[in-house]
Structures are given as structure tokens and as C-alpha cells.
Write a structure and sequence with these properties.
- By secondary structure, the chain is of the alpha/beta class.
- It folds into two domains: about 160 residues, Luciferase-like domain (TIM Barrel); about 120 residues, no CATH class.
- The protein is built from twelve helices and nine strands.
- The longest helix is centred in the last third of the chain and has 19 residues.
- This is Luciferase family oxidoreductase group 1.
């Protein structure tokens, strides 16, 4: 079986009964914990107008996490590029890379990370997104290049820095783009698993080597919930199920603690919709996680598995990432 790295996707989840300050402290605690377990990277995702997610000022939060850690790579999973000026993102990430050399990743997506009305407030033009996103990526590459030093518009800090770009996707569209540009590709299997297999196939078949990357590099983002027993893992996973029910119902309230019976909350149709969205979610004790990891890797052969854990209790969240680390080492015979 192909070797793979483990990483963390953090949405800076806001929990019922907790403050946003608590959220940020929990994110830093998780980053330190993951660093000690040799997770490869810690990514934060840009979302807006959601009471349940506090990572809207993604660049600022990346700086906070990088400042509180020592070696783990920290970055965006991702920056929703059409929400921003390319120059501003180049300057922000140039600043981060200058502060924390060799540790900053810039993952890029085209989705708004929010609802339509908020997207308008962010200044997005939906009519130009498909042409704007690829153009902005090329703009970023230009701003980061040494060759741009004679240009009238320059990114300082940013110019001449080695800041790796990653393309994020939740459909096959970005797979074609990542392959064409020769950039690493991360798929959002944690909320849109339907096209993941086809997207990876397209990316690998169409990949063109670039200055940044000579061979395809695939990251799969999945939800993962592990506990000391199978029963406990399934019990604490009800926070994740409730979060997806809230998405279906367009209810952005903070994440809820576990419940005894999800059938008291969701309808049969909602249950079916949630389970479809969580098709590749890994849930169980260590033995079950090992089996699921092996099955997933045999199917997808990813270079990296990025795990998101919607778990209400922070200590149980840490324990889950520890179990995933142990399970991965066992599967790979490390």
C-alpha cells in the first residue's frame, strides 16, 4: 500500500456554550498536539457568516497558529481567492512566510465559502468566477516570482518567496485546472464526496509537470472520528451529524454536544442526505480506523489524508487525532 501523510483540517468550530476566544485557543491546542504527533500540516478554511465557524479572517488565524507552533506547516484550506484581491493575498502570505519561513501553505478555492447574499457583500461577481479564478492564480505566481521585480505593481512582502500553491476542489472542475497548472490538488471529500474518485482520475491523467511540482500530489480531506471504543466513537459522531443537518436546514448555529438518538432529530430523508455527504467519513475505535484507512488508501492511493474532526469535547477531539496517528502508523508498519 502506498505511503501517505496525515494532516489536520480545522474549521475553527464554535461550540454551543463556548466563546470564539475558546475556539481559537482550542485550535492552537490542537495544532500543538498534532505537531507533537508529526502531522504534516494544519490548514484552516475560509468561511463567512456562520455562527459555527470562526475562521473567516483566515490569514490572521494562520499567523496565530504558526506563532504558537514550531515546525508543523500551517496554511489555508483554503483561501477563497475570488473573494479577494490577488495582490492582497500575495502580501498577506508573503508576510506570513517572512515571519515563519518554510512553514506556510497557500491553498486556493473558487467557491464563496458562504451563502449568496454574503458572497455579494464580499464583492464577488458570479458571472466572471470561472475566468477570474485561474487568472488570479497566475497573478499570484507572478507576484511571488523574482522576475516581477521590475514590474510597476509588486507584492512586498511576497516577491521571490517560495510559497507553495495548492488547488482545492469539490467537483471535477478544479481537477482539470490543477492538472493544467501542475499544482498539488486537495479534494473536499469531507462535505462533497460524490466526485472525488473521478476528480483524482482526471487530475492524475491530465497532470503536466511544473516548476513547483514534477508529479501529481493528491490530498483527500475527510471527516474522521475515533475513540477508545466503537460505541463512544458513534456516540460523539452525532455532533457531526447535527452539523450536517444544520447545513441542510440552512441553520448556522454553533456545534451541538452529542445526543443519544439522531432519529429524534432527523427525518428519514435528511438521514439519507447526511449519510450520502459523509460517504467517506471514518468512524470507530483504533482497529476500525485501521481497517477503514487501509480500505480508503487501497481505493484512492492518496499522498496525504487531511482529517477534519467535528467533536464537541476538546479532549476527545485530541484523542481522536491521536488514535488516527496510531492507526496510520500501524497500517503502514511504522
Amino acid at each position: 500500500m502506498k505511503n501517505f501523510e496525515l494532516s489536520v483540517l480545522d474549521l475553527a468550530p464554535v461550540k454551543q456554550g463556548k466563546t470564539i476566544h475558546d475556539t481559537f485557543q482550542d485550535s492552537l491546542s490542537l495544532a500543538n498536539f498534532a505537531e507533537n504527533l508529526n502531522y504534516k500540516r494544519f490548514w484552516l478554511a475560509e468561511h463567512h457568516n456562520m455562527e459555527s465557524i470562526a475562521s473567516s479572517a483566515t490569514s490572521v488565524l494562520i499567523g496565530f497558529i504558526a506563532n504558537g507552533t514550531k515546525k508543523i506547516r500551517v496554511g489555508s484550506g483554503g483561501i477563497m481567492l475570488p473573494n479577494h484581491s490577488s495582490l492582497v493575498i500575495a502580501e498577506q502570505f508573503g508576510t506570513l512566510e517572512s515571519l515563519f519561513p518554510g512553514r506556510i501553505d497557500l491553498g486556493l478555492g473558487r467557491a464563496p465559502g458562504t451563502d449568496g447574499l454574503t458572497a455579494q457583500a464580499l464583492g464577488r461577481n458570479p458571472m466572471t468566477i470561472n475566468e477570474q479564478f485561474p487568472r488570479q492564480i497566475l497573478e499570484l505566481q507572478t507576484y511571488f516570482s523574482k522576475e516581477n521585480s521590475d514590474a510597476m505593481v509588486r507584492a512586498i512582502p511576497g516577491e521571490g518567496l517560495d510559497i507553495p500553491l495548492y488547488i482545492l476542489g469539490s467537483s471535477t472542475d478544479s481537477a482539470w485546472l490543477a492538472a493544467e497548472l501542475g499544482l498539488p490538488y486537495a479534494f473536499a471529500g469531507h462535505f462533497a464526496p460524490e466526485q472525488m474518485e473521478m476528480a483524482f482520475k482526471i487530475y492524475r491523467q491530465q497532470f503536466r509537470p511544473s516548476r513547483q511540482l514534477k508529479q501529481p500530489y493528491v490530498i483527500a480531506c475527510v471527516n474522521g472520528i475515533a475513540a477508545s471504543t466503537s460505541e463512544e466513537a458513534r456516540a460523539i459522531s452525532t455532533t457531526l451529524y447535527q452539523a450536517f443537518i444544520n447545513i441542510i436546514r440552512n441553520d448556522r448555529k454553533p456545534f451541538a454536544p452529542p445526543v443519544k438518538d439522531m432519529d429524534d432529530i432527523w427525518s428519514p430523508m435528511e438521514k439519507s442526505m447526511v449519510l450520502q455527504k459523509l460517504k467517506y467519513t471514518l468512524i470507530g475505535d483504533q482497529a476500525e480506523i485501521e481497517e477503514q484507512l487501509q480500505s480508503f488508501q487501497e481505493k484512492f492511493e492518496v499522498d496525504e489524508l487531511m482529517v477534519n474532526a467535528h467533536i464537541y469535547d476538546h479532549q476527545k477531539r485530541l484523542e481522536s487525532y491521536h488514535i488516527f496517528s496510531e492507526a496510520k502508523n500501524s497500517v503502514l508498519g511504522v
